[in-house]
Amino acid sequence: MAGNLLVGQSGGPTMVINQSLVGIVQEAKKSEKIDKIYGALNGVVGIMNEDLVDLRQESEEKLEEVACTPSAALGSCRHKPTREDCEKIFSVCQKYDVRYFYYIGGNDSAEAAHIVNSIARDNNYEIRVFHIPKTIDNDLRVTDHCPGYASAARYVAMSFMGNDLDNRSLPGIKIDVVMGRHAGFLTGASSLARFAPDAGPHLIYLPEKPVSLDKMTEDIKKVYEKYGRCLVAVAEGICGESGNPIMEAYADEVDSHGNIQLSGTGALGDFLVANVKQRLGKGYRVRTDTLGYNQRCFPGVYSEVDAREARMVGRAGVQYATRGEVAGSVAIKRTGEGDQYDSEPFFTDLENVAKVTKPMPDEFISSEGNDVTEEFLRYVKPLVGKLPQPALLEKK
Amino acid sequence: MAGNLLVGQSGGPTMVINQSLVGIVQEAKKSEKIDKIYGALNGVVGIMNEDLVDLRQESEEKLEEVACTPSAALGSCRHKPTREDCEKIFSVCQKYDVRYFYYIGGNDSAEAAHIVNSIARDNNYEIRVFHIPKTIDNDLRVTDHCPGYASAARYVAMSFMGNDLDNRSLPGIKIDVVMGRHAGFLTGASSLARFAPDAGPHLIYLPEKPVSLDKMTEDIKKVYEKYGRCLVAVAEGICGESGNPIMEAYADEVDSHGNIQLSGTGALGDFLVANVKQRLGKGYRVRTDTLGYNQRCFPGVYSEVDAREARMVGRAGVQYATRGEVAGSVAIKRTGEGDQYDSEPFFTDLENVAKVTKPMPDEFISSEGNDVTEEFLRYVKPLVGKLPQPALLEKK
């Protein structure tokens, strides 16, 4: 089936989402079936407004440079399309003779693709609709892990390494807030920072395990008594005893997905610091950093595995469509462990990825709920790659 | 004069303060006049408690690794020694036959060295007392710039580059808070992030220029109307119209230097976001990040010039002492500009560096007070080194 291709990027940008975009464009150029290669500006919003650009006009050299640039080169959006929006998207596909539609994003993007595909089917319009996975949250089903995750994980690990070193210099209690609304994979990656037996993070709190502020303070006190300092990793989505996000009381914005605003504010960290200070009393130096948007867009820090795989899933999506698959998503299978790590893409249906996300499995979370397990470390380490190795004085 | 050497590290750690430490140790090893090389744990606190380690026991290989590790390898402190403390420090120097005393830090460390030196003189105790400059604030007098600054500046520039890219993907108003209590050098370095004519930061607010929240909001609105987005750099020490730091109302801690706590909290950013939202009304996406301790301890991101110069000033301090200078500090002179940048150390008296700091000079600040000048860019660029070059789609 011959026609044009349309690609859009959705949700929070990542260090490698442009790798997927470029993978799609490069593979599309190889196919005789694909004529124009449209890029939609700002995701589905750009499709509905017919803000399209011609990606064939970009030089190969420029595409390679864009692939290595963090952020969404086409622009992104946080708009979750309604049924009506999807009908509009479909009509734009018809108008522009789009026969290959790619949406790079998380589970909501897979759901949007799923709806567009069903509308096309109802209208007997032949089209290939593919979701290309992207999320630093690493919370998509089916796939072993998600493009975008490992680079963010690398930045998080390096931040905690630096913060541990900083906290050795001027000892105290330090609470770092990491992105992650429902899934703790990114916060868990802070564990890669442990370059020495006494290195932090000493405690890791994940959205999957509600924690009382009393328990958290007790945990911190124990570590502090042992080391004279304590570095804590907290997911922005952590829940209190009630099971509701602690940030619920502080967020003043709700997005179109019904999510409260967690990022782009230091409120959770400041709240936790105030609580620890109040519970422990005076005499403790307690500080917080919210790692912020650098987690997904810091230039120059990325995982090589992640960059390669992000390109790979983009290419695979085009290959699946041109070989005849009608609609689907691309997942990643791990084909080697540890130093022998390797991976390959595989096809999966859109409904397997759409809507519902995947939390961190129980075997990755310590029994006390304040750390990750060795099994998680084996899972995450090969994705993130070799980290800097800080050195301490030996005779100190 | 023969005897032992004692070195301590003070204040906030940096990416390269261990370069200076290692420079001192390596140069001391070359001198026949210097016997033991003591390291004081946690700065002057460790001296007073006689928490000393023998740095001669560290292998050359380990020292080189430590030099490349961010943070203060000996531990640091924020204690500003009183006259009595300095007498105690002096008595420890006597007890351990310390004839070469090095304190790596900012202006307060120079002042401490100055007092110890005068006590020694009053007691006819022969000793060399040197201050080795270190501060990410870049606010020491005499020297062209301070070791520690350029690496922090590099991290800040890369953060703003990433945040600009992020803000292009999901447009809005983004306010990033940068370290800097009285001096705007570090916040000003955000200007290095401007990789394209429309790239942020679009506005830069420095501690040297008080700003009203009305004016700031007007500035932001203008940029937003032009680009549909706005990235703002704000120093943590910015002052309101009254001339007092905006954070004054939010800080709940004051350190032994009489300084209110500015870092380790997201309060200023959240306050500014709330103000902008209130003044601009609904319909704007406004976010903030406080760049935090990563600015001084993020592993792997550093300026090569900075690392080299930090080593250089440590070495120079020992050379000055062994050639006969009694007490002083090491400053840096620029001996080439732009691509031809080079530098050399020179001797200066302690009182030239102690106590009073240096703000950003007027010629580095734009007339409107919301940006830096070309002159500042010429000053800072060679220190920070080549930055990543993000790529945008050409035909977008």
What does this 3D model show about the protein?
In chain A, helix 1 packs parallel to helix 11 (304-322). The model of chain A has no long low-confidence stretch (mean pLDDT 96). The relative contact order of chain A is 0.17. The N and C termini of chain A lie far apart (70 Å). Chain A has 396 residues and is an alpha/beta fold. Helices cover 37% and strands 17% of the residues of chain A. The first copy, chain A, folds into 2 domains: 3-148 and 302-352, Rossmann fold (3-Layer(aba) Sandwich); 150-300 and 360-384, Phosphofructokinase domain (Rossmann fold), CATH 3.40.50.460. Chain A has 12 helices and 11 strands. The interface between A and B is large, with 70 and 69 residues.
Characteristics of this structure?
four-stranded parallel beta sheet, alpha/beta, 17% strand, 11 strands, seven-stranded mixed beta sheet, 396 residues, 12 helices, homodimer, elongated, 2 domains, Rossmann fold
Structural class of chain A: alpha/beta
What's the arrangement of strands in the largest beta sheet of chain A?
Answer: 3-2-1-4-5-10-11
Q: What does the main sheet of chain A amount to?
A: 7 strands, mixed
Oligomer type: homodimer
How far is it from the N-terminal to the C-terminal residue of chain A, by CA?
A: 70 Å
Counting DSSP H or I runs of 4 or more residues, the number of helices of chain A is 12
Biggest chain-to-chain interface with counts: A-B, 70 and 69 residues
- The overall strand count of chain A is 11
Low-confidence parts of chain A lasting 5 or more residues at pLDDT below 50?
none
Q: And the CATH topology of the largest domain in chain A?
A: Rossmann fold
CATH architectural designation of the largest domain in chain A: 3-Layer(aba) Sandwich
Order of helices and strands of chain A: EHEHEHHEHEHEHEHEHEHHEEH
Percent in strands of chain A: 15-25%
- Shape descriptor of chain A reads elongated
Give the total of domains of chain A: 2
Average pLDDT score of chain A: 96
**The top level CATH class name of the largest domain in chain A:** Alpha Beta
